[in-house]
Automatic annotation (TrEMBL):
Function: Has both ATPase and helicase activities. Unwinds DNA duplexes with 3' to 5' polarity with respect to the bound strand and initiates unwinding most effectively when a single-stranded region is present. Involved in the post-incision events of nucleotide excision repair and methyl-directed mismatch repair.
EC number in record: 5.6.2.4
CDD domains for the chain: DEXQc_UvrD, SF1_C_UvrD
Domain UvrD-like helicase C-terminal: 291-565
One cellular component (GO) term of this entry: DNA helicase complex
Transmembrane segments: none
Protein name: DNA 3'-5' helicase
Family: Belongs to the helicase family. UvrD subfamily.
Binding locations of ATP: 31-38
Organism of derivation: Litoreibacter roseus
One Pfam family linked to the record: UvrD-helicase
UniProt-recorded Gene Ontology molecular function terms: 3'-5' DNA helicase activity; ATP binding; DNA binding; hydrolase activity
Species classification: Bacteria, Pseudomonadati, Pseudomonadota, Alphaproteobacteria, Rhodobacterales
Keyword Glycosyltransferase: no
Amino acid sequence: MSARAAPYLDDLNPAQREAVETLDGPVLMLAGAGTGKTKALTTRIAHLLTTGRARSNEILAVTFTNKAAREMKNRVGRLLGEAVEGVPWLGTFHAIGVKLLRRHAELVGLKSNFTILDTDDQLRLLKQLIAAENIDEKRWPPRMLSGLIDGWKNRAYTPESLPASEAGAFNHRGGELYAQYQDRLKTLNAVDFGDLLLHMVTIFQQNDDVLAQYQRWFKYILVDEYQDTNVAQYMWLRLLASGHKNICCVGDDDQSIYGWRGAEVGNILRFEKDFEGAKVVRLEQNYRSTEHILGAASGVIEANKGRLGKTLFTEAKGGEKVRLIGHWDGEEEARWIGEEIEAMQSGTRGMHPFSLNQMAILVRASHQMRAFEDRFLTIGLPYRVIGGPRFYERLEIRDAMAYFRLVVSSDDDLAFERIVNTPKRGLGDKAQQKIQMMARTNGVSLFEGAKLLLAAKGLTGKGAAELQKLVDGLDRWGRIQRGTEMSHIELAEMVLEESGYTEMWQNDKTPEAPGRLDNLKELIKALEQFENLQGFLEHIALVMDNDSEDAAEKVSVMTLHAAKGLEFPAVFLPGWEDGLFPSQRSMDESGLKGLEEERRLAYVGITRAEEVCTISFAGNRRVYGQWQSSMPSRFIDELPEEHVEVLTPPGLYGHQGGNAATASPVMAALGESDLQEKAANANVYNSPGWRRLQERQTRRGMSQPRESANIVIDAQAISAFTVGDRVFHQKFGYGEVAAIEGDKLDVAFDKAGTKKVVSKFIVAAES
Ligand code: ATP
Ligand code: MG
């Protein structure tokens, strides 16, 4: 076909064109960020359709996120004009998995109208199984089992194919419980997410005719973000593609960020082996970012070992250097970014104006979003959260809010229903029905109904005792709420502790649990800005209603994981601090695997930016209302200095970003600070990262991120704690300082006994 008849080919460089026009046989496009892999993949779909190689329903195209799938559909539509019908088999692995499984459900003992369980349902089921086996769920929590089962499904293990070494997990009962769980799902005519692919793999393996049918049907298979496929996805693809072998995968080993979920970057390396004669196309020109952004990203990723290694260049010379700025604390960071977005919107930064849609904030951990959401609501800056619930819509936040709602108003039945058995109080469906009945017969709220039921001795055993405890608690918390003896912040913490809600997550062994606990801490922190619980709840009601139509101009807020494949003219990357990014978990791990995955995430983050990339860190973050100091991320040190410009913190030095009319928040904070805060502050400005920034600036003769004389305090000279102080430690809980030796403390913990801990891992607690 001539380029004339296929004008879309004119927009490609020769390497991309080769990938698009090599229609027969396996093709692997292995290239760095922004080199036009997705563009080539989309064009390939258009080309297959235009040349008549395939009808739209004969093309199978897989992406990772719904947003990416939507975008690819739009792009194909644009390439071919409105007249073209959609590509029905273009979607995420899960979306395509459901569609296929509905057609063949009976082959794995399901009916085609099977239901898909969410995580809550899945856990409820596992809990029942664990209970039926008389396993102590305190020691062997359902979440741990669900984590194991998900992992097995990611690796394509059915209960039958599960190796003995794995089946012994969960107190030697893992494999057995997995089998029971799958049986139970079958009886319920239900599947979980992992089943969507795993069942299809099983069906293909056991039914040659079905497999052959799809091998013929899907003449062309295309996969974006191939580096993040897990074993089950890989097997599924390989089975489907092994007939005609027209499979085109595109990926970037430097952007593999789902290892923690079972993705195997090795799948890329195996491609050439599995698909003999594969054409490997490399792309080297980056069309997305300016030279400084690309240079900064390349500098960071170079620190990883075991890369395939790639060269990248861009013709977009010059432009803004990657901007780096340190802040006093997380709130200051959010405030500055809010102001900066408004300034960039009006074009007062010496750059062209950016629309809100052109700007995005990419965070490492979802709990970071809260500060931004609150700030943006306060200043009325429209924003949208992409890929994942917004902070106030998360499970643990909704649960906690339900408790608060009940404290404020005990007749909030929806809130009561939500938490009556969360944490588990032995109040199953039957008990809850009794409460409902009692409430209905007497025309009262569920809370009152529960009281009546208890008075009438309508419940017995553990459930009765636990319900009594809950009801008494709610009465008491309600009284405190109406009185003045305790602040609403203390009350909120007390409610979550006494109700057993915090403990539920502390005992939870799944990977999400620490994040949920962080979110709960964030929630408590958010209360500080309100006078009472009621005011807070009203505020949240407004937040929840903030869902407006999607076409509006809004700043995007999302995690780095959700940002994969996307691009924005201006990107903000906040929270570059050791312990947050890279995460504490990756730093504690032995070996470099976790840390290298974090570094790839940093690479993904920087390479989302087209024109302006702003990285920031805060010297202090508040945990449980106490300052904790943090160090600038080690990734900051890896940014090549020639691509970085250090901005001075606002307020401190009256720079462009600060609002001259308001007093410096740093100074203001210092004015009221106690010694501990100063110590925290001193840590940051004495940190190696900050010193290096200074040195760089000095070498370049630029204005320095100066430390003013009254800020710098010798951190060593101050011991933030004294013997007898009440403290809190993330892992060991509350305790009392027994002895101090340098930065190491002996702490007598209430529950964990006496332990030696490093002072930076503890915070002062109210006694
Ligand atoms: P990532 O690894 O981040 O997913 P990618 O390799 O998929 O990146 P694309 O998103 O396809 O890259 O392309 C990046 C940007 O470059 C897009 O805006 C795209 O339109 C543009 N682009 C791609 N190829 C070309 C080209 N040959 N000429 C001009 N612009 C191009
Ligand atoms: Mg892409």
